[in-house]
Amino acid sequence: MTLSGDWEMVVGLEVHTELLTKSKLFCGCANHFGSEPNTNICPVCLGLPGSLPVLNREAVDFAMRIGMALHSTIAPSTFHRKNYFYPDQSKDYQISQYDLPINSGGYLDLLDGSRVSIERAHMEEDTGKSTHLGGSGRLAGAVSSLVDYNRCGVPLVEIVSGPDIRSATQARAYAAELRGILMATGASDGRLEEGSMRFDANVSVRKSGEPFGTRCEIKNLNSLRSLQRAIDYEALRQIELLEGGGVVRQETRHWDENLGETSTLRVKEDADDYRYFRDPDLVDLAPDQAWQDRVRAALPAMPAQRRADVVALLSAPSSPQLDAVEVVIDLGLERYVHAVVAASGDAALAVARVANELAADVEHVANLSTDAFVATVLMEQRGELSATQAKTVLGALLADGGEPREIAAAMGFEQLSADSLGSTVASLIDAHPDEWGRYREGDEKLAQFFIGQVMKLTRGQANGKAVIAELQARR
Amino acid sequence: MSDAITREEVAKVARLARLSLSETELDTFTEQLGQILEHARDMNSLDLANVVATAHPFGVTNVVRDDIVVESLDRDVVLAMAPDARDHRFAVPRILGEAP
Amino acid sequence: MRSATQIAADVRSGTTSASDELERTLSVIDERNAELNVFLYVDVEGARAAAAAIDERVARGDDVGPLAGVPIAIKDNLCQVGIPTTCSSKILEGWLPPYDATVIKKIVAAGAVPVGKTNLDEFAMGSSTENSAFGPTRNPRDPSRVPGGSSGGSAAAVAADMTSLALGSDTGGSIRQPAALCGIVGVKPTYGLVSRYGLVAFASSLDQIGPFAQSVTDAALLLEVLAGHDPRDSTSLPEPAPSLVAHVNDGVVGKKIGLVRELYTGANDDVLASVQAAADAFRAAGAEIVELSIPELSLTLSAYYLIAPAEASSNLARFDGVRYGRRVDGDDVTAMMEATRTAGFGDEVKRRIMLGTYALSAGYYDAYYGQALKVRTLTIEAFTRAYQQVDLLLGATTPGVAFKFGDKTDDPMAMYLQDVFTIPTNLAGDPALSIPLGTGDEGLPVGVQLLGPGRSEAQLFAAARVLEIADGRS
Predict the structure, then answer these.
(1) CA distance C31 to A199
(2) DSSP string for A444-471
(3) If you average pLDDT over residues C267-273, what whole number do you get?
(4) Beta bridge partners of A23
(5) CA of C32 to nearest chain B CA: how many angstroms apart?
(6) Would you state the pLDDT for residue A131?
């Protein structure tokens, strides 16, 4: 969506991701989605009087991985208390990081070449979950609420971008790329639908060249689509408001996916005073060089690098080919492409087969060894299998594993010998003299007719190229 | 009567702390808090710009635990403590307003 | 009353039984608790079962531990499974913790028999135990007077000969001051020496659990059991428990002991006399007394009365009626929280919560809380400089002897001034103890205070022992 006049939107995103630790941030309760309510709680995460927090080392490692992937500076950090009363916050304060976060600065490069700056990526604990009774199940209109503290204390990293984003599309691209990175680090499973990753968007508008306008925060967007739609809606809302002589109020808004609009949640006039102060129950965190080096050594390659490595194998890749590469990287299946290239096979063909055939049955990719994939692709490349046959063999390998040549033989895909093809073509020429006459006089279209007939007779086993060679030889 | 803190400020702070005060209490607390804060003014005049707060007095840092799952509390025991519980969850009256 | 050391030795050797010791304790409690209001809860069944179990193990030849069969009183801000823990507050009335504090586990593993929960100023905020929601405790030495606070109940339990040992907590003097007013030994350990896991937090950067006893050796015995690294407390010192009992008779020959002007100026004559007597006793025992001034200490009262309430305001936010304790209903959850906290907290607690909230609030943080944290650094540095000149410091514990009920309840500042000599070490994180020496007005006990650098408990006990002997209490 492009904005009218010289209006420009300014967007910053705050992304929260839960970390894939086994236990919570400050206690040994299981970090597990979907457990029976209130079965993963202890004195610490329930905030019982006398309990004390102890930091999970793995959460620190994951936080550092994220910082490294975002090119942040990792520095000594402290934990602060953010004080506010809310029933899902078991201590009525959240342990977070404030003026000294573990990761500060950094950037994220998008596919379109733009770069979004990262202000910080810090650690904090998640809250419990409330369900609302009465009303429509939403907060507004409820009569009472029920709280489950299983999620309370689960480790989060909050990633705050600079206000560098200028369109909803770019915001979506940022969110998608960030998600890919977080999943690539191993720190997050990126499951938006489970709430393990959430987006808050800060949106303001201004005329080009003017200072930043008042911003509104849209909280808890849980899909890329709603992120994009909400930002577009909000920017337009603010523009209409301003063009009508109104003033944008600084507030928190809620996006309604069904109605397609944002509405006021909370006006920030009496900005919550969180009374941040350093948590005296925790000590300073200063990972030394050796610790950071260990984390860096364990950091998997990031999407940008993996993408570049595959693209480098293609000569002058077309736009559809680049899209196919995206699919390969998204699914983390580039090892199949690299294996084919290592065996002197064709990268483009490998990319196509991964992006189409493997992508179609990705849950069963474990059944398909790289060797089997390489063998199949090479057979197709050498003409021993037609494209259709190759796809069928791959499908069978994904479903049940096995060895490509055996599967091809079992399916009767043995290559027709030159002789038998020759006699098939000869008999067809005899059977269709008119068509053969027109072909001989130069009507190339009839090649397809003969190929079709050969395919019918051989039940699809002939290689199209070989049939054409045979026709031309007899012309 | 000290001017270190006003009645309005005490009322605001009470709200922040989820305490409701009667008019008399508001008066009394304003006076008492004022005296305490007045006493604290001996610190305000000091120039401590170059002094840094101390974290742990004996420099303890980097305390972490292994990422191991440990047995949780028995849910029944926990819910038995609750003033109101329903459906294996803690029940509270309606919540007005989203979380920060 | 027999010392804990003696009881433990006798139980281990079979000379006496844990059950007999317990019955003696229970009968004294029976006799005096109604009048003194020391115990809020006596765990008769649990204690009898524990004592019987100890006797069985002794019969089998097991080594039951250094506190074998010793009955011990527990301040009611320490969590014990299934035992009511109220912090002397209505807001926690009826709450039964589902877990044990680390110190409870340690004393039980050492063979001690926890007898019940003692009265305190609500949430450990106070210096007289008059802030308890369940009535004040009376000083066993003079029941018309306060026992001190906040650990008044624990101090009284030992002073009344109910138990030879008790656990208290000290944030600004809450062990040392009641020890002085009740005439017993009370120790605030080095910050981090004893795990805080299971201690209901008042001010997290200042709180420490410590022993009350009638003798220096008993206090050392208990502290040895309490101390040591706890992985559940991130602020706990990394090392295991130090050896303390073995050093109690090391003496003070060749030691330099600083007599700090700021730690006795303003005290009344009785107290000054005892401090002087302590200095004399140390000289006679071969130590050198050095007169010192640490001017930074005059700022510590103000800094403490911003830092402690600030942390408390956050630590007490969890008492909101949602998950445990008393709830007062409301139309919505905010109204419920407000009604619950308003009805559940006493005035002193409310005062400190509001003071703390204010000190942390936007616009005031730098001037109040931020500034106080810096004063704390100055205090630490000042003590460090002092300990370059001397080994230990000597001063008063309190400005006077035990006062009458109601004497200081009208004026919060007057009550806060009770802590003027004890607060500095809490801010610094250093250890200190109070040891009875001499008597004051109307025969009331007086305590003097010994302070040392971090981890110097062994030296402190050795010095305290010198005074104990000089006072004729062997």
Answers:
(1) 65
(2) THHHHHHHHHHHHHHTT-S-HHHHHHHH
(3) 96
(4) A30
(5) 32
(6) 93
Contact C334 A48 (CB under 8 A): no
Q: Which of the residue ranges A283-297, A413-427, C200-214, C294-308 would you say has the lowest mean pLDDT?
A: A413-427
Gap between the Cα atoms of C278 and C285, Å rounded: 10
Domains of chain C are 4-242 (3.90.1300.10)
Which of C187, C251, C199, C250 has the alpha carbon at shortest distance from C224? C187
Cα of B33 to nearest chain A Cα, Å: 19
Summarised one tens digit per residue, pLDDT across range A286-295 is 999 999 999 9
pLDDT of residue A416: 57
pLDDT reported for residue A417: 54
Task: Evaluate whether ipTM surpasses 0.95.
Answer: yes
The answer to whether residue A425 scores a pLDDT higher than 90 is no
Bridge pairing between strands C113-118 and C39-42: antiparallel
8 Å CB contact between A174 and A25: no
Active site annotation includes C19:
no
Cβ(C299)–Cβ(B42) below 8 Å:
yes
Give the percent of chain A with pLDDT over 70.
Answer: 97
Q: Outline where A219-286 has alpha helix (H).
A: 224-243
For position A414, what pLDDT does the model report?
64
C contacts of A85 (beta carbons < 8 Å): 317, 320, 334, 337
Q: Which positions in chain C touch A83 (Cβ < 8 Å)?
A: 313-314, 317, 360
pTM: 0.90
Tokens of residue C189, six digits = 């350990």
CA angle, C154 then C160 then C161, to 5°: 100
A129, A88 Cβ separation under 8 angstroms: yes
Nearest residue to C401 via CA among C147, C175, C215 = C147
Q: Cβ-count burial of A323 within 10 angstroms (0-12 exposed, 13-18 middle, 19+ buried)?
A: exposed
Could you tell me the domains of chain B?
A: 7-44 (1.10.20)
Quote the crossing angle between the two packed helices A464-474 and A418-431, to the nearest 10°.
Answer: 60
Residue type, C384: T
- Cα–Cα distances in Å, from A187 out to A60, A64, A65, A178, B62? 10, 10, 8, 12, 21
Tokens 């009968």 belong to which residue?
C27
Q: What are phi and psi of C135, to 5 degrees?
A: 85, 155
Average pLDDT of the residues in C452-464: 98
Contacts of A135 in chain C (CB under 8 A): none
> Strands (DSSP E) along C64-130, which ranges?
71-75, 113-118
Q: Are C394 and C275 in contact (CB under 8 A)?
A: yes
Separation between Cα atoms, residue C118 and residue A268, nearest integer Å: 46
DSSP of A45-98: TTT-TT----EEHHHHHHHHHHHHHTTPEE--B--EEEE---TTSTTSEEEE--
Mean pLDDT of A221-226: 94
The verdict on whether omega for the bond into residue C236 sits within 30 degrees of 0, i.e. cis, is no
Choosing from C88, C127, C128, C174, the catalytic residue is C174
Burial of A267 (0-12, 13-18, 19+ CB in 10 A): exposed
Under 8 Å between Cβ of C437 and C448: yes
Q: Which of A327-331, A417-421, C293-297 has the lowest mean pLDDT?
A: A417-421
Give Cα C65 distance to the centre of its chain. Answer: 24
